[in-house]
Amino acid sequence: MKRYPRLFGWILALPLVLAFKIGWAQELEKVVIGHSSLRNEIAFLWVPKELGIFRKHGLDPTIVFIPGGVRMIQAIVAGSAVAGSVGATLVSSAVAGGSDAVMILGITNRLTYDIWAKPEIKRPEDLKGRSLAISGFGSSSHVASFLMLQHFKIDEKRDGISFIAIGDEPTRAQALIAGRIDATIVDPSVSGPLRERGFSYMGNLQDLGVPFVNNSVATTRRYLKEQPRVFEAIVKTVVEGNAFILNPANRARVTEILARNLRLTSKDAEKAYEDLLPKVERKPYPSMEAVKATIQIMGLRNPKIAQLKPEDLVDVSILQKLEQSGFMR
Prior knowledge:
Layout: H1 3-26, E1 29-35, H2 43-51, H3 53-56, E2 59-65, H4 69-78, E3 83-86, H5 88-96, E4 101-110, E5 114-117, E6 131-134, H6 140-151, E7 162-165, H7 169-177, E8 183-186, H8 192-196, E9 200-204, E10 211-220, H9 221-226, H10 228-246, H11 251-262, H12 266-276, H13 288-299, H14 303-306, H15 317-325
Parallel strand pairs: 1-2, 1-3, 6-7, 6-8
Antiparallel strand pairs: 3-10, 4-10, 5-8, 5-9
């Protein structure tokens, strides 16, 4: 008989427990976060999404692929996505054009592109008079290709280089395989099919030693002001996700996530994991030196960009707050 009062108490409490759980679920903020490329560094979104770290910090994200950085920055400025991954080049162009776009995280603070060309192109000088595929004009791949040519002492106009804007890295790799272009640059995590088919590998742009914010998390200053809790949650999530990626004990899980999202074989996924680790920032600040270099490079073609300062493109107040609080070490 003594069991019944306790059972009765649980029955009375059950609606309260359910209400609490439903209420907690309803408190999750729905957000759209975009990425403009399919490469291993997008693990900064894929890993915390699968591990539930976004939900831990009160967010219910929809992660969307918007091919090409130009479309991505347009989506951010238009409000279709609250934040997205783009390079510093596109943020500088957007700000010079009058938008309030801003970078809050540095995802990749270095050039990581592999240089690939048709098999008959063996030396840098063989690129003269050839077509070179990029994602879009003014994009990170466009500026990186310009830096590559500069390094090889090749002048775009004098030496007859044709830039062709055809889309993201897998699309560019397929265009090279199909013979529609002569050369392109893609991330090592996308290079597998080109390597297997015997295309000419001409090095990696990381060897140039040029500081460059190849990928960042960008939003607008208006969103940042109106939704501070959302952006603090995003930053916390990325910091935790990066720490998970960098922990060697999590190698198998991270590799499995890369394999599924990039549709890689086990062998290629292992290579993608190895290539990813040097890119991941435990403290994901955008490199101010790299932002300054971007302004200098882009300013050669756009006088409005030349007038910008690095602080016009970056807001790391949330990162600084988290570091001061001890959340990020």
